[in-house]
Amino acid sequence: MKIRSILLSGLAVAMAGLVSAQPVPRPRFGPGNGGPGNFGHGGNLEQRLTRQLGLNAEQQNKVHTILAESRIASQDIPQKMQALHASLTEAVKAGDEAQIEKISQDFSQLHQQQMAEHAKNIAKIYATLTPDQKVKVGPNLEMLMGGPNPRMRNGGAGGKPPVPGVVQ
């Protein structure tokens, strides 16, 4: 029993350290947030998908609606994360293992909700695509919500290959 208590305490301290080292997430698709919606190129996701996949006007409208709904649905996430982080910090300081456990579960539940919503939005966008556009996307579904596109690494398809031994 004492070993379990020590292990839980150690886990809680480690988790608190990890959580405190994480920045509070910003909304994924907010204007100018420099996040995945901007893909680091100053453009926005809708424009990038239109350019890369050749979306027609109807598809662009559907994607716009999906992204707008996503913004609205996730606008309170940063505040929830910040509140959970503050609660976890207090629980760690108080040594309240039961509260640490509960807050950890709350973090997990919030993360699970985010992942589910993210996947649902990708599915909605994917459903708007033509068969040819789906072929262009291939297995890289993350590109539909602003995630990393392997073809864009190292300057894109025609970019420089990675230099051996150099971390990029």
What's this entry about, in short?
The protein has 168 residues and is mainly alpha-helical.
As a whole number of angstroms, the C-alpha radius of gyration is: 20 Å
Mean pLDDT: 73
Provide the β-strand percentage band: under 5%
CATH architecture classification name of the domain at 28-141:
Up-down Bundle
**Strand element count:** 0
Written account of the structure:
By secondary structure, this protein is mainly alpha-helical. The protein has a domain of 114 residues: Four Helix Bundle (Hemerythrin (Met), subunit A) (Up-down Bundle), CATH 1.20.120. It contains six helices and no strands. The N and C termini lie far apart (46 Å).
Write the layout of secondary structure elements.
Layout (H helix, E strand, L loop, with lengths): L1 H20 L23 H9 L3 H18 L2 H18 L2 H31 L3 H7 L31
Helix pairs in contact: 1-4, 3-5, 4-5
Features:
single chain, 168 residues, mainly alpha, Four Helix Bundle (Hemerythrin (Met), subunit A)
